[in-house]
């Protein structure tokens, strides 16, 4: 989620997203969430980075360490 892959078609760089899908999953919903996440990235909000930052801060807090940057 933190690394962004791209591929090129007709000299245009496009985002590449691998999404594992199992039988019985709601494919349209998965595609809609992926598209919304891409739009959020274009607007500057990276949800995977935000989750990573919050998890790291919580892990450090539980150990008694100060959060990064303090």
Automatic annotation (TrEMBL):
Entry-linked SUPFAM superfamilies: PEP carboxykinase-like
Membrane spanning stretches: none
Name of the protein in question: HPr kinase/phosphorylase
PANTHER family the record matches: HPR KINASE_PHOSPHORYLASE (PTHR30305:SF1), PROTEIN YJDM-RELATED (PTHR30305)
Keyword list, A-Z: Kinase, Transferase
Segments forming domain HPr kinase/phosphorylase C-terminal: 1-54
MF-aspect GO terms: ATP binding; phosphorelay sensor kinase activity
Keyword RNA-binding appears in the UniProt entry: no
GO biological process, one term: regulation of carbohydrate metabolic process
Lineage: superkingdom: Bacteria
Organism: Tectimicrobiota bacterium
